[in-house]
Amino acid sequence: MVLNVALAFLFVHFLGYANFFRQGTVSLFSLQGTGNIVVVGLPLGFALSQIVQFFLLFALLKRKLGDINLPEIKDSFEKVILATFLMALFVYFVIYFLSGVFLQLVAGGVAAVLVYILITYFLKSPELKTVKHSLLKQFKGQ
Q: 119 near 82, Cβ under 8 Å?
């Protein structure tokens, strides 16, 4: 959390005046014509701190558990990333052709869930089976 706050302050500071970092950020995120881009430093700091925290937590988990099956984790990660990318692409096209924020929200949400489940099913993702068994166990337990 301290890293998150520190990085947010750092990015806000560097985006507060004209410099190479500000110009690069404006160019990278197509922020030309945007008034005050200082606020972009907050999500940048948050995202970077989350990446650092992921690696720290992964190292601690590996130290605690010892041997971690990295190829299996890599395989699952690749399936999740592919399914997420395809889902986002599909949802983008669904909401592009709809008008009205509420309709876009509902149709996009339903499409996202259905497409993600369908893609993970075809990719034979073990996480889908885990979620299915967990839901079935939870509803049978009541």
A: yes
Among 53, 22, 56, smallest CA distance to 40 is for: 22
pTM of the full predicted structure? 0.64
In single-letter form, the type of residue at position 19 comes to N
Per-residue pLDDT tens for 32-72?
A: 887 788 888 888 899 999 999 999 998 999 899 888 888 88
SS (H, E, C) 29-76: CCCCCCCCCHHHHHHHHHHHHHHHHHHHHHHHHHHHHCCCCHHHHHHH
State both tokens at 118.
């369908």
Of the pLDDT bands very low, low, confident and very high (cuts 50, 70, 90), residue 141 is: low
pLDDT above 80: residue 76: yes
Residue with tokens 């889902």: 87
